[in-house]
């Protein structure tokens, strides 16, 4: 009940401030019509416009970077897929490993991890492929998650501007009352502009975050399909215990067996 009363009082207070803002705008209109520019709104929004602007720049960068990284041309370039398929058809798995190691695309990284473990059998190969796919997916989602952070933080920053603007409005009411609405319009303008700016950044940030998540899921699925097709009929028995790649093998026989023989 107390929370409901507080919420009602806050809504009524905000409505009253908006009414006063309208009165101030009417008074300004009576003095002369003046259309606000973007710079005027930036100044009117107060200090919170600076972090909100930084968030907007970061949002644009993460959106562009995310859409570039999740495109088919970056995840599985057609020329890389064609080259890997040709090498697998020839049975040149050493060449496939060497090409995948230098290609630099996610699909090539997955193939490299898989080929390196083929001498250890099908189970180890599949685990290596899944591990590399998981790493790539985590990296892509980790970068796109910053859009979610921006979507959460910018309304909070705008809310801070709302609170500081209301404090300024109360201070103006306490000193000069409502006799001169023009003095009150600046503080109320800070309230409204800061809130609107935070929401203006948060909405496209959240939309882009979920759109990128769908692109990442599709890209990972496509990579999985390509790699599955390459290893579908892989001759594990013929490559068993052979050295295909140049991955270093750390495990060796226990040192006590060597000592006992000595």
Keywords:
262 residues, disordered N terminus, mainly alpha, 11 helices
Structure write-up:
- The chain is an all-alpha fold and 262 residues long.
- The chain has one domain.
- It is built from 11 helices and no strands.
- Helix 5 packs antiparallel against helix 6.
- The protein starts with a helix and ends with a helix.
H-E order: HHHHHHHHHHH
How many domains make up the coordinates?
A: 1
Please report the distance between the alpha carbons of the first and last residues: 83 Å
Query: Over the alpha carbons, how many angstroms does the gyration radius reach?
Result: 31 Å
Mean pLDDT: 80
Helix content: over 70%
Please state the overall shape, judged from the principal axes of the Cα atoms: elongated
Given helix and strand content, the structural type is: mainly alpha
For the biggest sheet, the summary is: none
Low-confidence stretches are 1-8
Give a count of the beta strands, DSSP E runs of length 2 or more: 0
Given the structure, what is the number of helices?
Answer: 11
Percent strand equals under 5%
């Amino acid at each position: 009940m107390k929370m409901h009363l507080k919420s009602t009082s806050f809504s009524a207070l905000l409505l009253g401030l908006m009414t006063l803002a309208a009165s101030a705008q009417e008074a300004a209109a009576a003095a002369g019509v003046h259309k606000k520019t973007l710079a005027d709104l930036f100044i009117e929004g107060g200090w919170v416009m600076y972090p909100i602007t930084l968030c907007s720049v970061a949002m644009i960068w993460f959106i562009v970077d995310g859409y570039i990284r999740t495109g088919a041309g970056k995840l599985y370039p057609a020329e890389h897929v064609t080259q890997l398929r040709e090498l697998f058809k020839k049975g040149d798995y050493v060449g496939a490993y060497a090409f995948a190691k230098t290609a630099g695309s996610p699909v090539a990284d997955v193939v490299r991890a898989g080929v390196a473990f083929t001498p250890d059998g099908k189970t180890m190969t599949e685990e290596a492929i899944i591990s590399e796919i998981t790493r790539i997916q985590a990296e892509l989602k980790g970068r796109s998650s910053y859009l979610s952070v921006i979507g959460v933080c910018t309304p909070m920053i705008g809310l801070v501007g709302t609170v500081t603007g209301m404090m300024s409005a109360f201070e103006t009411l306490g000193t000069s009352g409502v006799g001169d609405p023009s003095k009150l319009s600046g503080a109320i303008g800070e309230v409204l502009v800061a809130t609107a700016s935070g929401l203006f950044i948060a909405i496209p940030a959240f939309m882009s975050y979920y759109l990128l998540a769908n692109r990442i899921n599709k890209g990972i699925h496509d990579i999985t399909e390509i790699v599955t097709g390459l290893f579908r009929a892989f001759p594990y028995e013929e490559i068993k215990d052979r050295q295909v790649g140049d991955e270093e093998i750390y495990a060796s026989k226990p040192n006590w067996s060597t000592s006992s023989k000595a």
